[in-house]
Structures are given as structure tokens and as C-alpha cells.
Amino acid sequence: MNAEKNKLEIGLITMGTGVLAFAIWTCVKLILSDLFLGMNFDSEMNQNMKIVAVVIAYVFIAVDVPLNCYAGLSARAEGKGKKKTPLYLVVTVLILICRSLIILLEIYLLFASETGKLTIAVSVIIDATAAVIMTEMAVNAIRLRRLRRLAEKEAADEL
Asked: 133: how many CB neighbours lie within 10 A of its CB?
């Protein structure tokens, strides 16, 4: 049981770090694509719509990055043995739901778009990888909590 607990703790720390890395990458990707490439918009889109789209993208990042950082840091803390509330697991599930919707949208764009298919395909793969890491993180956190509860119960029964 101790080996399983150690494995889950190390996995939780590693996956929490992965979630942090994806949060940072999301932020860097948006900023670099905006600065160096400009947002890739349809040429028929008017200037006001382009500004609205950019603002929405930055607002999304302003919400997404801190939530991912919270989930990743909380998972790392729990992996290191600190007590965490289940709130970060709820946040993780909400992020996963949003990420799944984004992946579905990207898959739609992949088939509907005439240009930029490679960029969209890479984005789908990266987002799917992030979703798998977050799913694994949540599953490991739940398994670790159950294992710790079982260990506490066994220790109490021995007394």
C-alpha cells in the first residue's frame, strides 16, 4: 500500500507540473501569436470584430491560466502530503469540460477550414494531451485520497 501511495504522490506532483506547463504555454502561445503573427482573422471581418475577438481571447486566457495554475499547484501540494480541499478537483473538472468543448470546436475548424490545417491539428493534439494529463491528475488525486483514508482507518483500527 505504501508503494502505491508513493507512486500516486509522485504522479500527482508530475501531472500538476504538467498542468502548470500547459497553462504557461497557453499564455505564451497567445501572446507570441498576437505579437509576431497578428491574430489570423478572416479578411472580411471588420476592425471592431477583430478587436472584440482579441479581447475575448485575452479574457479567456486571464481566466484559464490562473485556474490551471491553481489546479496544478494544488495537485503538487497534495502530492507532497498537504491537505487540500476538493475545490481544485471541481475546478479541474470544469476546466476539462471547457477544454473538451474547445477540442470539439478545433476539430470542427480542422474540417471546415481551407487553410491553417496543420496549425489547427497541432493545437488539437496539444489540447488533447493537456486534457489527458488533467484527467489523469484528477483520477490520481481521488485514488490517493481513498488510499490515505483507508490507511487512516487501518491505523485507527489497530489502536
From this structure: 19
User: Measured between alpha carbons, how far is 58 from 143 in angstroms, rounded to an integer?
Assistant: 35
How buried is 71 (Cβ within 10 angstroms: 0-12 exposed, 13-18 middle, 19+ buried)? buried
Among 34, 142, 21, CA closest to 93: 142
Q: What crossing angle do the helices spanning 117-158 and 47-79 adopt, rounded to 10°?
A: 30
Question: pLDDT 10s per residue in the chain (159 long)?
Answer: 789 999 999 999 999 999 999 999 888 888 777 776 565 555 566 677 777 877 888 888 889 999 999 999 999 999 999 988 999 999 999 999 999 998 999 899 889 888 778 888 988 999 999 999 999 999 999 999 999 999 889 888 887
Tell me 115's DSSP state: S
Domain coordinates of the chain in residue numbers? 2-154
Q: What is the pTM of this model?
A: 0.84
